[in-house]
Amino acid sequence: MIQKGKKSYPAIMHVDADAFFASCEQALYPEFQNRPVIVGEDRGIAVALSYEAKRAGVTRGMLIQDVKRICPDGIILSGDYETYALFSKKIFSILRRFSNEVEQYSIDEGFVNITGMDKVLNLSYNDIGKHIRGTILKEIGISVSVGIGKTKTLAKLASYLAKPARVVEITEANILESLSGAKIGNVWGIGSSSAHYMNQLGIYTADALYSKNMSFVAKHFTKPHQEIWHEMHGNMVYPICIDEKTQYASISQTRTFGKTFGNKALIYQELISNLEGACRKARKYGLLAGKVTIMLKRQDFSHDVYELRLPRPSSFPAQIAPLLRPLFDGLYEKRAPYRGTGIILSQLQDEKVVQLNLLENESHFNKLEHVYNAVDTLLSRYGKNTISIASSHNAMKKNQQTPQRIMKLPLLVGVCH
Ligand SMILES: [Mg+2]
C-alpha cells in the first residue's frame, strides 16, 4: 500500500504478452492448454511456440519437419493472424481503460504511462501492474508479463526480467540487483554488435553500464547509447508515442461456390450469409465495424469491390444488410458469372467505447443487441447454421442438410433441428 501525501514517482509500464500467438490458440482452444503448441505450419517453420513447446526443445525458426521429430505430441498449427490481431486489439483496449497514454509498440507489446495512478487507485505501482495483468488474463485468457520503471528502457528491462507471467518493478532501491540479472545485449536498443563493443569495455551486464559515470559514457559512446544510459538512470529520453497504430485489424469472410453461376438472388444471399459470419466473429470479440467492403468474385478471378463507410459502427447484420442491397445491385452484372462473394469488416472499434458515444437511438441499439445476444447464444448452442437473417436464408439452407422446421421472425429466420 502506498503512503498518502508522498509524491508519485514517474512510472512507465511495459506490457508484453507471453508466447503471444501460441497463447491466443490456447485461449481459443482450451484443449491446447498445458500442451506444446507450435504456430507456423503454413510457413514451414516454427514462428511461435508455447512455453511447453520451448521446454520440449523446439526453437523459433526450426523447420516443421524437425519440430515433428523433436516434439511428436506437439500441436502444429497454421497462423491465424487475423485472430491474433483481434486479441491484440482487446489487450490495447483494456490498457486504454487504465490510462490515456498508451503506446502500441508491437502486436503484443505496449507502454503505458501510469504516473500518478497510485494516488488515484490507492494502490502501489506493483499492485496496479498485477491488477492489469489479472484483468487481461481474466477477460481474454492471455498471460502477459509486466515491467515497471521510471522510463521506457527500465520498464522494458523489467518486463524482460518478469517473463513469464510476473510483474517486476525496478525502483531506486533494487536497481543494481535487478539490472545484474540482464545481459547487456538484453537492454532495449543494444544490438549484438553494440553488445560486443561493450563487452570489450568490460561491460557484460546491464548494471555494469548503469554503474559507469557520465564522463566515461560521453567518452566511449555515441548519442543513442548515451541516451540509453540516461534512461537507465531514470531520465526520460524516449516519450510515450500515443498515436494509435493505423494498421487496423479486419475481419473477413468469403466463400467460393462449387461452380460459377449467375443467379442474382442466390449470390446476394451468399453475400449476406458471409456478412452474418463476419458480424458474428466481430460480436464474439466485442468489436464494431466502421467500414464494410463487399466483394463479388468473377469467374475470370477479377473482383468487383465496393467499400461502404457505415453511418454508425455496427456488428449487426440487420443494420448493415439494408445498406448493402443498393451497392450489390449496382455492382452486379447480369452477364458476369460469379464464383464467390466476400465481406470484409474493417475500422474495428471496441463496442464498449463506441456505446459511450451512442446516445442517439440508444433504445434501438439496445434492442438489436438484445436480439443478437440471443442469436449468439443459439448459434453457440446449436451450431452456426441455426439462425440467420431472412435475406440469407436460402443460401444458408443450401449449405446445410435437411432442416426439419422453419421458424419465421420479422428480422430473423431460424431453423430448429
Ligand atoms: Mg511477447
Automatic annotation (TrEMBL):
Cellular component GO terms held in the UniProt record: cytosol
Q: Which residues form the UmuC domain?
A: 12-191
For this entry, list what GO says about its biological process.
DNA repair; error-prone translesion synthesis; SOS response
What does the record give under GO molecular function? damaged DNA binding; DNA-directed DNA polymerase activity
Provide the family line.
Answer: Belongs to the DNA polymerase type-Y family.
Query: Which protein, by its recorded name, is this?
Result: DNA polymerase IV
